[in-house]
Each structure stands twice: as structure tokens, then as C-alpha cells.
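Side project, low priority. Logging it here so it doesn't get lost.
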Amino acid sequence: MQQLRLFQPEVCLYKKFSYENIKATFKSIETDIYEVVLELNSNRFLIVFKTAMSHIEQFEIVAVKWFVEVTMNIVRVIRKIVYKLYFEI
């Protein structure tokens, strides 16, 4: 009798980026859905986004570390940074 595995190893695609005070690690969760740990100076953001046709369709900042207030302007800037890092580099 052959026993089935209870846990299958996850096959994840990682993409890492590091430049001066910006670090980003992209992890593929599902098809076209990615998780990003973005570090700007000492501030960390956990972001989940969905892509479609070479643009970001959905974007959500899930968690923030060391940042006091996240305004819409900061969200727009972070979204642009994630877009540039994922699609253009």
C-alpha cells in the first residue's frame, strides 16, 4: 500500500529587488496574484496585488510596520513603486 503525502511542497516564484534603501520581495501566490514585502528605509509594507494585462488591477496594503499614518498619497506612491519594480525592472 502506498501512502499519500499530507503536505505538498509549495512551488513559489520569488523575485527580489534591492537598491539603496528600497528592498522588495515578490512572491507568486496564485496565477496573477502576488504578495510583496516592501521595505522603504525602516518602514515595511505587506502588499497583495493582482495583475491583468501588464497593469495592477487590485492593490491592497495588508500590514504596515513602523509607519504611523498611511494616507492616500502614500498609497499611490507605494502602488507606483510596486508597479515600477514588478513590470519595468
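Brief comment: Strands lie at 14-19, 22-30, 33-40, 43-52, 55-65.
Revisit when time allows.
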